[in-house]
Amino acid sequence: MSAGDFEVLILQRDRLVQDNKLLVQDNKLLVQDNKLLVRDKKQLVQDKKLLVQDKQQLVQDKQQLQLAQDKQQLVGDKQQLVQDKQQLGRDKQQLVGDKQQLVQDKQQLAQDKQQLGRDKQQLVGDKQQLVQDKQQLVQDKQQLVQDKKQLVQDKQQLVQDKQQLVGDKQQLGRDKHQLVQDKKQLVGDKQQLAQDKLQLAQDKLQLVGDKQQLVGDKQQLVQDKQQLVQDKQQLVQDKQQLVQDKEQLVQHDRQLVHENDQLVQMVNQQQNRINHLQSELNLSSCPSGWQRHTVSTCYQLSSSKNTWEYARQDCASKGSHLVILNDEAEEKVVSGFGGDGTIWMGLSGRINGYTNNWEMTLVDSSPLRYTNWADQRWDTWNCFCAYVHYGSSSLETWFRGSCQDHHYWICEKHPGSVCRG
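Now predict its structure.
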C-alpha cells in the first residue's frame, strides 16, 4: 500500500468518525425531542384533566349560577387557549415531518452505522406512538369543546332564570371571587404555553439550520470525491510514464554495458599487442614532452589554440604530422591525452566541382579506413577541416568546421623518426 492510499484511508476514517459523532448528536437530539413530546403528552393530559374539572365546575355553576359576563369572558379565554394549543399541535406536526426528513437524509449518509439506525427507528416508532396519543388528546379536546357548547346553551337558559336567583347574589359574589382566582391561574397557564411556543419555534429554526449544514457537507464530500478521482487518474498516468522511462533507461544501460565490454576487450587486445611488441623490440622512448601510445607512436598536445594550417605546419616542423585516428582504440587513447577540449586532427575535405562529391585527404596521404562522424549537415561548407570533441555527450566525436577556427592540436610521430641531436 502506497503512502497516498494510506493517507486516503486515514481521511476516510476521520470522515466516518465525524459522521459517527454527528449521528450520536442527532440521536441525543431525538431522545430530547422524545422527552419533549412525552412532556407535551403529560401537559395535554393535565389540560384534559383541567378541562374535565372545568366541565364539572360549569355543572356546579349551572346549579349555583355564576355571573353571565364573567362566564362569557372565561369561555372566550378557554377558546383562545384551545386555539393556541391547536396551533402548537400543528407546529409540532410540522417539526415531526421535518425531523423525519432529516432522519432519512442521515440514514442515507450513514449506511454503515446500522446499529444507530435501528436506535433511530425505535425513536421514530416512539414518536409515532406519541403522535397517535396526541391525536387522541385532540379528539378528547373536540369532545370537551362540544360539551362546552352544550354548557353555553345551558348557560343561556340559566341567564333567563337569573331574575329568579337575585336573592342568591351574595353567594354568587363569593363564587365570583373564586372564579377570579381561577382566571389568574388560567392566565398563568396561557403565558407558559406562549413560552413553550417560542421554544418550539427556536427548535424549528435550529433544525432547519442543521439540515442546511448537512446538505452543504454532502456537497463538499461529493466535490472532494471528484477531486480525488482526478488526482488518482493523474497519478496513474505519471506512473505509466515513469515505467516507460525506466524501460528506456534499462535498454540504454544494457547498450552502454555491451559497448563498454567491447571497449574493454579491444583495450585488452591492444595492451596484449603492446606487451608482445615491447617484449620483441627494444626501441628508444619518446623524447621529452611527448607521450607514447604504442611502441611505434608518440603524441604531443599543444599548449594553445590556433588554425588548422598553423597546427599542420607546427607538427611538420617537429618531424611529425597532425594526429590520424585509425581505430577506436587509438581514438580512446587520444581522448585521454586531449581531455574534454576540441582538437584538430590530420583530416580535411572539399567538394569536387566535377562530381559534386566530397574528397577527403589525410595529412600523410594514406587512405581513410575509419570514421566516427557526429550527426551534422554536409551542405554547410565547400571545404572543411576535421576536429574531435571528446566533451560531447554523443559517442560520435568527429566534427567538421571552418579551417580558420581555433582549436588545440596533437602531433603524431614514430620514435624511429625522432631527432635526438
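The beta strands are 291-294, 297-301, 321-322, 342-351, 358-362, 383-389, 398-401, 408-413.
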